[in-house]
Here is the input.
Amino acid sequence: MKLIRVYLALVLLITISACHSTGSKIGSDILASSEISEGKPTYNILEDTNIVHVDNTQRIVTLKSYDSIEDGYYVTLSPFSVDTTSTLKIYNATYGTIYIGDILDGRPKINDSVAKVSPSKSQELNIIYSEVAID
Here is the structure.
């Protein structure tokens, strides 16, 4: 009986020390935490827009949207977290509800959410991904 109490005490001690050392929050509302919202950009996700095809060899993506999409820079977001998975540039090449864009950075996946970047981020991406003039 004393051995079981010793094991339980050790398990309890290890659990408490592991949670304390990783900064985990036990019993607190993690979603209401200000740590998550600080520094993370907020995106306006396009509701009826889906990635239907990804070609990582040619670095293009095909989107289906029932709403019109402006050409410009977009990011894709993982449906399971708020992390961005890629940066896209959508051109004015449309075939009805199908849009085509270039994958500039990252690896998008089918069913990732699509969101337009802010105007300041768009200017920053214009500088980074400027097109080269061919003589």
User: Anything to note?
Assistant: The first strand starts at residue 44 and ends at 45. The CA atoms of residues 69 and 131 lie 21 Å apart. The helical segments are 2-22, 34-37, 119-128.
